[in-house]
Amino acid sequence: MHTEPTTIVIIGAGQAGGWAARTLRDEGFDGRVVLIGDESHPPYERPPLSKAVLAGEVAPESVHLLDAAAMAAMSVEWLASARVVNLDRTAKQVMLADGRAIGYDKLILCTGGRARELDVPGAGLPGVHTLRTIDDARRLGPVLQRDAHVAVVGGGWIGLEVAATARQRGAEVTVIETMGRLCERSLPEAMSAHLHAMHAAKGVEVLLGAAVASFAPRTTGGLDVVLSDGRSITCDAAVVGIGLVPNDELARAAGLDCEGGVLVDAQCRTTDPDIFAAGDVAVTPNSWAGRRLRLESWQNAQEQGIAAVRSALGRDVHYDPLPWFWSDQHGTNVQIYGVPSPTHEVVVRGDPAAGSFVFFYLEGERVMAALGGNAARELRFARRLIEKRTQVRAQDLADPGVSLAKL
Predict the structure, then answer these.
(1) Domain containing 392: what range?
(2) Cβ proximity of 292 and 320 under 8 Å
(3) Is 251 in contact with 277 (CB distance < 8 Å)?
(4) Per-residue pLDDT tens for 332-377?
(5) Nearest-angstrom CA–CA distance, 405 and 403
(6) Given this model, what pLDDT does residue 2 score?
(7) For residues 123-135, b (16+ Cβ closer than 10 Å) or e, as one string?
(8) How many CA atoms within 13 Å lie on the side-chain side of 175?
C-alpha cells in the first residue's frame, strides 16, 4: 500500500523548485514542504534575464514565480540564502551550512547549474561578467549603454541573446566564438548562417575560431581581451556565456549516479527511490532524441518540476517531453522542436531572408524536428506532425500553398 510522505524537501529554489513547491499544494499534499534556495530571491524564471530585464524594460522582481507572501499562504517553508552541504541518505536528512539538519521522507533535487567560467588569467576581474542570476543581470545591465563596447565570449544562445540586447541598448558588440560557426553544438549549419547574418546586419562583429587567452585591465578603465592568436580587443566589459555546469556535486557526494548531471528515469527518480531530480541538473531518457538528455529550457524546468512532484506522491508518471527551446534576438523569435541531426533531410518553408521561415528535419516521410524564425503558428503545426508521427511529403512541407493544418 502506498503511504504518502509527511515531509518533502526541495533543494533549489529556481523555476523547477518553485513549480515543485506549488504543485505539491495543487496536488493536495498537506504535509510539510521545505524549499531551500541559495539565493536571497524567491523562485524566478530565467529567460527574461537576458532579454527584458537586461534591457531595462521590466523590473527584476517581475520574473518572480512566487513571492514570500504566496509561499507563506501555501505553508511552504522557504529557506533563503541557505546552502546544503551534505545529503545523508541513510538518516534521510540534509545538513545546511549553518548547522541545521532537516529530515525528509522524499527529496527533490532542483539544484540547476551555474555559469561556466573561463579558466584564463584575468577571468576574475570586476569587468568580466556572467549571466545566470537576477544579481548578475543587475550588475551587467548598467554597463550596456550607448557607446559602450561589450565583448561577448561565446556564440551560443546566452551569448547571442546578450549581444542582441546590448545592441538594442546602443552598445558596440564583438562576439568571440571558438567554434567554426554560431551555436554549432545545437544548430544545423543553415540556421547558424542565418543567425550570423542577422547579427552582422545589426552591427554585431562576430569572430569565429577565436579563443580568449586572457583578460587584462586597462589603466584608463575597461579591459583588453587578448586572443590566443595575439589579437587584442578593447572593451568596457566582457560577458562570458560559454554554457552551464550542472550542480550535481551534492548528489555525487551522496553516491547517486551522475553523468554530467543527476541521472533519473522516466519517473524522475534517481538511483535512490526516495530522491527525485528535475530541471537543468537532471539527465533524463528521451525517446525523441534516442538518448539521455539534460534539457536546459524553461519548458523542462517547469514540466519536470511538476512531474517529479507527482512521482514523489506516487502518481503514475512517464516523463518524455518533445524538447522545445526558444530564443529572442533582434526582433526574431527562434523556436526549435525536437533534436535536429546531420542525418536528417532538410526542407525549407518560407524565406529566411524575409524573416519568417521553418526548417523541417525529415527521416523518410516523418518530421523528426522543426526549427523556425518568426513562425509560431507554423511551428505549432510542426510540433503536431512530430508528435503524431504523421507521414508527409517533402514537397508539401516546402510549399507555402499547402496548409500545414491539413497535413
Answers:
(1) 331-398
(2) no
(3) yes
(4) 999 999 999 889 999 999 988 888 999 999 999 999 999 999 999 9
(5) 5
(6) 57
(7) beeebbbbbbbbe
(8) 32
Q: Are 110 and 122 in a shared domain?
A: no
Cα 190 to Cα 181: distance, rounded to the nearest angstrom? 10
The residues near 193 (Cβ < 8 Å, ≥ 6 apart) are 181
Residue type, 145: Q
Residue 12 φ/ψ, nearest 5 degrees:
115, 115
Task: Spell out the alpha helix ranges (H) of 105-188.
Answer: 134-140, 157-168
Q: Within this chain, do residues 235 and 304 fall inside the same structural domain, yes or no?
A: no
pLDDT-based confidence at residue 1 (cuts at 50, 70, 90):
very low
Q: What is the largest CA-CA distance in the chain?
A: 71
CB crowding 360-385: b at 16 or more within 10 Å, else e: bbbeeeebbbbbbbbbeebbebbbeb
Domain boundary at 262, 285, 312, which?
312
In a domain, 364, yes or no: yes
Output the domain CATH number for residue 357. 3.30.390.30
CA–CA gap between residue 78 and residue 82 (Å, rounded): 10
Q: Tell me whether residue 326 is in a domain.
A: no
Residue written as cell 524594460? Answer: 57
Of 211, 240, 269, the one marking the end of a domain is 240
Q: Within a 13 Å sphere around the CA of 52, how many CA atoms are in the beta-carbon half? A: 11
Written as one letter, the residue type at 242 is I
- 2 in a domain, yes or no? no
Q: Which of 5, 2, 4, 22 is nearest to 305 (CA)?
A: 22
Count of domains forming the chain = 3
Summarised one tens digit per residue, pLDDT across range 125-184 is: 999 999 999 999 999 999 999 989 999 999 999 999 999 999 999 999 999 999 999 999
Same domain, 51 and 92: yes
97 and 208 assigned to the same domain:
no
- HEC per residue, 367-393: EEEEEEECCHHHHHHHHHHHHCCCECC
Query: For the chain, first and last CA: distance in Å?
Result: 47
Give the CATH number of the domain where residue 262 resides. 3.50.50.60
Residue 324: which H helix or E strand, with range?
strand 324-329
HSE (side-chain half, CA atoms, 13 Å) at 219 = 0
Neighbours of 323 (CB within 10 A): 17
What letter does residue 119 receive in the DSSP assignment? -
Q: Per the structure block, which three cell numbers stand in for 104?
A: 525528509
